[in-house]
Amino acid sequence: MIQNFSKILDKAIEEIAKLPGIGRRTALRLALHLHQLENIEVEQLLSAISRLKSELHTCQECHNLSDTPVCTICTNPKRNHQLICVVQDIRDVIAIEATHQFNGVYHVLGGIISPINGIGPEQLTLEHLFEKINNNPVEEVILALPTTVEGDTTNFFIYQNISDKVKVVSTIARGIGVGEELEFTDEVTLGRSLIGRTNFETAYSKNN
């Protein structure tokens, strides 16, 4: 354990170390770095963090993060609003947008079905997804969830609920390794997986 002579420094390390992936040694380096910054730089950082909590919204349409009640993707008339890509979380939206291979809109579930972790359909934004599909013309739904047991379970649950309401239900091609998260997949592989997406029913029958 790192022992310091300053309670103020100790408290800073303690709070920084609460961030994911940051241990106490990294927290110490960050705390010392922050101390060495000019006051204006610290104020800008504090302002950005404050606005992150107070002004960043969850999009009312897709549950992506947004500066406004409805995000710029959902309000963009050039996007194909009849093509919906279903993803686990916001990081997947960022990963897919970086490929420049998708021109539809998104629906962020906020997780995947995982009974062992106490996450069922009611903990996700599935009802809103089904409501959107029921009330709007949708040509295709792309299921872009992790290639894990939990991801496949969520895919199948969605498919059962929308297959009779949507012309095409597809899934991203399995160029992505089994068990991989989208956010850690390189842009080229992810882009090709979107382009080479396959009919969900066909893909599911092959895997079962």
Give the strand line-up of the largest sheet: 4-3-5-6-7
Structural class: alpha/beta
Portion of residues in helices? 40-55%
How far apart, in Å, are the first and last alpha carbons? 50 Å
Assembly level: single chain
What does this structure look like?
By secondary structure, the protein is of the alpha/beta class. It has 2 domains: 7-54, Helicase, Ruva Protein, domain 3, CATH 1.10.8.420; 59-207, Dna Topoisomerase Vi A Subunit, Chain: A, domain 2, CATH 3.40.1360.10. The chain contains 8 helices and 7 strands; from the N terminus they run H-H-H-E-E-E-H-E-H-E-H-E-H-E-H. The chain has helices at 7-16, 24-36, 39-54, 90-97, 126-135, 149-162, 187-195, 200-207, and strands at 57-58, 65-66, 80-87, 104-108, 140-143, 168-171, 198-199. The strands form 2 sheets. The chain has a 5-stranded mixed sheet. Strand 5, helix 6 and strand 6 (168-171) form a beta-alpha-beta unit. The protein is elongated, with a radius of gyration of 21 Å. The mean pLDDT is 87.
